[in-house]
Amino acid sequence: MSTSTKPSGSTRKTWLKITAAVAGAVVVLLLLVLLAKWLRTMPGVQDFLAAYPGTSELPESAPVGLPAWLGWQHFLNFFFLVLIIRTGLQVRTGTRSPAYWTRNNQGLVKTKNKPTKITLNLWFHLTLDALWVLNGIVFMVLIFATGHWMRIVPTSWDIFPNALSAALQYASLDWPLENGWVNYNALQLLTYFATVFIAAPLAIISGLRTSAAWPKKAAVNKYYPIEAARAIHFPVMIYFVVFIVVHVTLVLATGALRNLNHMYAASDDGGWAGFWIFAASLAVTVAAWFLARPIFLRPIASLTGKVTSR
Question: d(Cα 207, Cα 234) in Å, to the nearest integer?
């Protein structure tokens, strides 16, 4: 029997595709930078950038600064999203589950039909989803109660030309001025709006539809087939992955200490408090990633249902 550790042909092809994709992305980004720099040499584009510097003015009643509760919201949102992405990939790849969970039909939720047995991975994914949605509801209530919605919802039409201006500045590597404590630039604002009010609801609506709990003869199968939900759910997950990568990159590249203080320490200075809180939150997230294993999940899942090996 061979004990060779050489990669198989399919593995080599996969790595070649990944390498080609990365190389292609680098070339595209380089061409985009060169194009943006060339455009900025044109008088008309320079006039456009002068007229629209990249930031749209907020209403006078808009709050200034980032409160401490927003820092907690930010951490919890990141924490749940990372684990949701991890468990979502586990569910999608269909790897053999180490255990299965069946809901306790004598608890708070009671149904006529027998509860459906699901994998432990799916149970954990759905539990994280529920916590993420709960955190989102709290976030929505707080931003509308405190006026912070004005920082992530467009309030004037000039947000669009300013967003185009900010995008051109980013692409040319001459980035727009940052002052997130007072106001996000227009591209940031539109991105946060799309994430909170479009991507998140799409993730929830499509995720609910992919649940195995729907009856096979339900009317929703005709008007909203599960295939359509899956076609939405996975691209939305990709969007969140890209958003996290770009968001973290820009936070660290545009004044890391000050940005981290905004997000985690509720202060507008260049101290190290925000960094250490961020480091602690990152350590908690990484620990949860590695501890999310059957040996730890089984006793938690058994609190609300029956856990079996088959």
Answer: 9
For strand 118-119 and strand 305-308, is the pairing parallel, antiparallel, or unpaired?
unpaired
Asked if 288 contacts 83 with a C-beta cutoff of 8 angstroms, the reply is yes
DSSP assignment, residue 224?
S
Asked if residue 2 has pLDDT above 50, the reply is no
When pLDDT is averaged across residues 261-265 and rounded to a whole number, the result is 91
Three-class secondary structure of residue 86 per DSSP: helix
Which pTM value belongs to this model?
Answer: 0.87
231: helix, strand or coil: helix
The sign one gets for the Cα dihedral 8, 11, 13, 19 is negative
Strand 100-103's sheet: what is its strand order? 118-119, 100-103, 305-308
Q: Give exposure, 40-56, as e/b (b: 16+ Cβ within 10 Å).
A: beeeeeeebbeebebbb
Average pLDDT, the chain: 87
Stretch among 138-152, 178-192, 199-213 having the lowest mean pLDDT: 199-213
Burial of 15 (0-12, 13-18, 19+ CB in 10 A): exposed
Residues in CB range of 262: below 8 A, 6 or more apart? 66, 180, 181, 268, 274
